[in-house]
Amino acid sequence: MALSSAFLASSSLCVPQTSSRPLLGVQRPHSALSQTMSSSMMILPHGQARGKSQNQPLKSTYRRSSFGTVRAIATPETGAQRYRKNVEVLSREHLVDSLAHDIIRLSQKCIDERGSFSFAIADTTSVQFLSKLVSPEMTTSIDWAKWQVFWVEEEVVVGGYDLKRRFLPNELLHPFVYEEFLNKVKKAGPYVVSIDYELIAKQDAADRYEAILRNMVVEGKLASSSIGLPKFDLMLLGMEEDARVGSLIPDHPVLNEQERWATHVHHRDEKPHLTLTPPVINSSSNIAMVVSGLECANAVYNSLMDGADNRLLPAKIISPEKGNVFWYLDQDAASRIFKQELYIDQRRSY
User: Fold this and answer.
1) Can you tell me the distance from the alpha carbon of 20 to that of 60, in angstroms, rounded to the nearest whole number?
2) At 254, phi and psi to the nearest 5?
3) Which value, to the nearest 10 degrees, does the dihedral of the CA atoms of residues 62, 335, 288, 86 take?
4) Banded pLDDT at 175 (limits 50, 70, 90)
5) Average pLDDT over the chain, rounded to an integer
6) Domain Glucosamine/galactosamine-6-phosphate isomerase: where (predicted)?
7) Per-residue exposure over 242-279, b if at least 16 CB sit within 10 Å of its own CB, e if not
8) Are 292 and 129 in contact (CB under 8 A)?
9) Which CATH number fits domain 68-345: 3.40.50.1360, 1.20.120.140, 3.40.50.880, 3.40.50.150?
């Protein structure tokens, strides 16, 4: 993603925009990456020492092709417009390509500046868009050994709940995430920070995960905000048909949590999940909201409009005070925006 406030440049052309704009990163607090990690964390092997990335640079021949850039959202009843930055509509193919290039450039910038890149991912709703990132032509451009990978949400498996799965390794608990992303770069050595499953209660698992994050902040292994919250370089989030973001479920008490960094969420007959809380999510330097599919069109439209109840649309509470949110939409997810004839640059169907 073009991770800066200047990412979505306006254009008067009525054709898909192509460009080779370099990543314009944002300023972040300095944080050194320690060579050792807490023994309480479940991690993949560590590789190289910190410092500037020595990996092959990303080829400069890449051209971004945008279906459209949303400049303003108009209220149908009044015609009043709310101008928005950082909402881009792409074909599914270009969305995957653009996301990969933007992540690579941001990671290179963070590694050059601080020696590490902290990347928090939700489960399958966002990981499905990372296929290009681990493709052979791109993976050599990434210094994976300096990546720290965290979970925004994670299914919690504890005693008394699905006991047979309790002692399975992370690879089997999250087959899609590992098969499509992490296993493809496992030998390169990114840190994967996870929770301890050998616990007896769901909140115990959340408390253990929070303790790991707090220790990393105190020890300087993870950057922090001015009020001491963990500050991830990039958080990748998706959205589902009911407008939930990760495990932030509409009209759920988790939306009101202000003290904990991590907590558990149990909704109706669904399996329990651990999730980072809104204050921690909103402490991120950059958040990428990646949404695809016609079934999410209503949720996307309502989340970008003013006036709707935040409790029913968790995406509306994703608003970093000192960070940026970038929306990556495919044509189906953005279809209601077009249907309402809202102002959009470069509107053209492929």
Assistant:
1) 7
2) -60, -25
3) 70
4) low
5) 72
6) 92-327
7) ebbbbbbbbebebbebeebbbbbbbeeeeebbbbbbbb
8) yes
9) 3.40.50.1360
Name 153's bridge partners.
275
SS3 72: strand
Question: What is the pairing mode between strands 81-83 and 72-74?
Answer: antiparallel
Beta bridge partners of 264: 274
Render pLDDT for 219-277 as a digit per residue (tens, 0 to 9): 999 999 999 999 999 999 999 888 888 888 888 898 999 999 998 887 776 677 788 99
pTM above 0.85, yes or no: no
As given in the structure block, the two tokens for residue 337 are 């925006």
Work out whether strand 72-74 and strand 117-121 pair parallel, antiparallel, or are unpaired. Answer: unpaired
DSSP code of residue 230? B
Q: What is the pLDDT of residues 66-108, one digit of tens each?
A: 666 776 666 656 556 665 668 888 888 889 889 999 999 999 9
What are the beta bridge partners of residue 151? Answer: 121
